[in-house]
Amino acid sequence: MSWEALGQWGEDAVRLEKITAGVANDVWRVRVGGQLAIGRLGRRRDADLAWETGLLQHLDREGLTVPRPVPATDGRLFVDGLVVMTYLEGGPPETPGDWRRVAETVRELHRLTSGWPQRPGWRSCTDLLRAETGTRVDLGAMPPEGVARCRAAWARLAGRPTCVVHGDLNPGNIRLTADRVALIDWDESHVDMPDLDLVLPGNAAGLDDEAYDVAAQASAAWEAAVCWDDDFSKRRLAEVRAVRAPTFGH
C-alpha cells in the first residue's frame, strides 16, 4: 500500500499537507479534480473499507453531514488501502449548546443505523462478555481482574438494541458551523450499544443519573480494552469499578 494509488483519482490528484500519521492511518489533505479533499491510507482490509464507505454513503443520503467517499476514475471507493473523502469545514464544539447539537446528531446517527450489520472483524462490548478478541481488542492481554470489571460494566447493557456508534467523539472529530454538525474520522465506527457515544461533556445527551452511570462505565471499559496497555487505557480502567454481575465463560 502506497500513495501511488492516488493516481487512480486522476492525473492531477496530488498530496498537499499531512494531517496525521499514526499506527493505523496516514492522512493528508489532497487535491482531486481541482477540489480539496482528504486522503487516508491505511491497512484496513477491503471488506472493512467497503463497510465504512457504504455506511458513509448511507448517512449522506439520509441527510447527515459526513465525509463522502470520492470515487476513483473507475468508480472504486478505495484502492490499495486508500480512501479519498470530501473535506469538511468547521470548528470543534465549545459551548454547552454546541454539545447539545452534537448529541442530537449522534442520536440521529443511531436512529438511521438501527440493526446495521457489524463491521467485519469487530465485536460489540456485549459480544466481549464471552469473546476474547475483536479487531484491536485482546482481553487476554489485560489483567484478569480488569477484564472482570470491564465485563461487569458491559453486562449492564446486555440485551439492548444495537446500532452504529461513531466510537471516537472527541472535539477534533467534530466540525461545527452555524447550520450543521459534521462528524469526521469514522475509523473506530462499528456496531455497538448507542450508550457508548452518549457520554458527552456536560451530559449534553441529557441522560438521567442511572443511564449516565451505565454509559460512562461501559465507555471507560471499552476505551481501556481497545487501547490496552498504554497510559490512557490504564487511566480509563482505573475509572471502572467492580459491579456485581454474572460470571461469563471464556
UniProtKB/TrEMBL annotation:
Coiled coil: none annotated. Pfam families: APH. Residues 16-218 form the Aminoglycoside phosphotransferase domain. InterPro entries: AGP_Transferase, Aminoglycoside_PTrfase, Kinase-like_dom_sf. PANTHER family: AMINOGLYCOSIDE PHOSPHOTRANSFERASE DOMAIN-CONTAINING PROTEIN, AMINOGLYCOSIDE PHOSPHOTRANSFERASE-RELATED-RELATED. This is Phosphotransferase. It comes from Paractinoplanes aksuensis.
